[in-house]
Design brief:
Elements (H helix, E strand, L loop, with lengths): L3 E6 L5 H8 L7 E7 L3 H11 L3 E2 L3 H6 L5 E4 L6 H10 L3 E4 L7 H14 L3 E3 L7 H11 L6 E9 L20 H17 L2 E9 L4 E3 L9 E3 L5 E8 L4 E7 L8 E7 L2 E5 L9 E5 L6 E3 L12 H9 L10 H20 L3 E2 L5
Parallel strand pairs: 1-2, 1-4, 2-3, 4-5, 5-6, 7-12
Antiparallel strand pairs: 7-13, 8-11, 8-17, 9-10, 11-12, 13-14, 14-15, 15-16
Length: 353
């Protein structure tokens, strides 16, 4: 099979790991055709570092390039919808960083457009394909914790303004802890326990302004436009019920946590923003947590693994891990937290994975 040719739209911070992996680990199946960024110098520096020959003036040059098989959308979250929409309208398959879109309504439009044009769409996160979560999946399916009963999941931190050089977008439309980190947690939970059936939630904006203390913007204030405290109950189609809590407002030693409770034991899942471990099991026999060896490959940062799966599926336009059914379901679930809060009721999830 000839290589699938990919072009980047957006060459920000996340692009470096994609560039590294696509030019090393995945280079036998994927070729980077060229790069595009609103700040041309970013594309030029990346092209020099990774020996990419072509730099596009704008994304429309990417879409017009007949040699491009997949557009890799690495723009900011609130730009994902417009870039993916334009690429699909130009007849290009798209793989996008998370989330699929910033609103459920925009996600619905992209889902319908991809179906109408018979084009593949995939997206991050692909960390669920790594050794850590895949090991947990196999253990659960093998009955090591008996029948899954419930779960608790949380991402707790005190925000990004103390360390990030440009933290404002985390608090703007399309940002917030659920839209930023929720994709990892929802995708991990649906990988392990199946589709979400209902969401019942509460959200709030604890601090209306944030003081940046990191350089180079130290001393500047951010107006917070999104909820920064998001908590709720997820009922899975399987009947398993649990909690998901994300916040930029609180302090916690263990920032990332997912625990699956079963009738015969308990499983601690690795940070879903990573590909590896550790995985811990507590059984009724051991009465204490013991680390379980990882059973699969891809322990290191393997971003691009989902894109690799899409590349393999492109010719036959078949379903693949990290396709739009997954990213669309995650988007519906994440945005259901705010709808539940606003409407004061449980939201039924219509999509499946």
């Amino acid at each position: 099979m000839s290589k699938i040719r990919v072009a980047f739209v957006g060459v920000g911070e996340i692009s470096d790991i994609y560039l590294k992996n696509l030019t090393t680990f995945f280079k036998n199946k994927i070729e980077i055709v060229g790069l595009c960024d609103l700040i041309r110098r970013k594309a030029e520096l990346a092209a020099e570092t990774y020996q990419i020959k072509k730099i596009y003036e704008d994304m429309y040059q990417v879409f017009a390039d007949e040699s491009v098989d997949i557009v890799l959308n690495l723009t900011r979250p609130n730009e994902h919808y417009e870039v993916t929409k334009a690429a699909l309208e130009s007849g290009k398959a798209v793989y996008s960083e998370k989330p699929l879109a910033s609103t459920f309504e925009d996600g619905q439009k992209l889902f319908a457009l991809a179906k109408e044009r018979n084009l593949l769409v995939g997206g991050a996160p692909d960390t669920f394909l790594g050794a850590g979560i895949q090991t947990c999946k196999k253990l659960i399916e093998g009955g090591i914790i008996g029948t899954p009963v419930g779960f608790s999941a949380s991402m707790i931190c005190r925000g990004h303004e103390t360390w990030h050089p440009g933290p404002a977008f985390y608090y703007e439309f399309g940002g917030g802890p659920m839209m930023d980190m929720g994709p990892y947690y929802v995708t991990a939970l649906t990988t392990l326990l199946g589709a979400v059936k209902t969401v019942t939630a509460k959200t709030k904006t604890t601090f209306p302004k944030r003081l940046i203390t990191s350089e180079p913007l130290s001393g500047s204030w951010i107006d917070v436009e999104v909820p920064t405290f998001v908590t709720g109950i997820l009922e899975m189609a399987s009947g398993v019920t649990g909690t998901l809590f994300t916040t930029f407002d609180c302090y916690e030693e263990e920032q990332a946590s997912i625990t699956i409770y079963g009738s015969e034991g308990t499983l601690k899942v690795p940070d879903p923003n990573t590909f590896g471990g550790p995985v811990y099991l507590l059984s009724k026999k051991s009465q204490e947590y013991k680390e379980i060896p990882l059973l699969f490959d891809y322990e290191d940062n393997s971003r691009g693994l989902g894109l690799l799966g899409m590349a393999s599926a492109l010719k036959d336009k078949k379903k693949f891990p990290a396709d739009i059914s997954q990213t669309y379901h995650a988007l519906e679930v994440m945005t259901a937290f705010q709808r539940s809060n606003d409407q004061g009721k449980t939201i039924v999830i219509e999509s499946e994975v």
